[in-house]
Amino acid sequence: MNALKHPPFFFLFPPREGPERVSRVAAGVAAILCILVIAGCAGTRGEKLKYYDTGEKKVLPMLGYTIQVGAFAEVDNASRLTDLLNGRGLEAYYYKSDTGLYRVRFGNYATKEMALKEAERLKSQGTIGVYYVVRPEDYPAAPGRHMTEGDLRGQIVQTAHTFMGVPYRWGGESPDEGFDCSGLAMAVYRLNGLDLPRTSEEQFNEGTVIPRRNLSVGDLVFFKTKRGTRVSHVGIYIGSDTFIHAPSQGAHVRTDSLSERYYDEHYAGARSYL
Fold it and tell me: Where are the domains positioned within the chain?
């Protein structure tokens, strides 16, 4: 190939003498630099866009009407009902109530009538028995409660602590999808009236990006514990470099430190939803 007689962009600027030529060259260079900068920004789009801060603060929508069923002394009974309801796409979760009994909640309905209709349908099929409809105003995050952000964060941590030692099982989902740990996070947030998505990847994409040094209690911390670039584990930050999580399928909910070598090496980021 013959060598170029002129530099690559020389054809844009016919050779001229004097100040006019200098001015045209400067303008052309500025235009080219502008194009390159725009192209560079466009190059950051695509898959990475899902995982990086857009500068926009994201907050979760409030939960609507929810159906509550069961009063189980054994967690296995609550787990089986949860699996059955999850198999029907109802996004169920169980929790330990103040009485020590395990209860199951599911659904997110815009009106009480819709919740009642669904509950009666499931009852007629023998899927559930006695039920109770939880109203949006019953949740700690309800506007009528007038909780500050700090109060709500504290309530989220308090709710997370009620799961400590509970064997958290979600047999209706594949453990490879990380639904054990993300199901715990979903349950904690929804018990407070915040509609957190069900899987760790959805949760990671939904919140506001938070630098590790700026973590606040109630934020979610994410990890990449499997091969690939997808997040696969999530915990609830409770302060002092510590988080609550369900470490594996069927394991008891416990606390661990972000500074532990394993979690430090697999740390993928944090998200806030308030």
Answer: 65-272
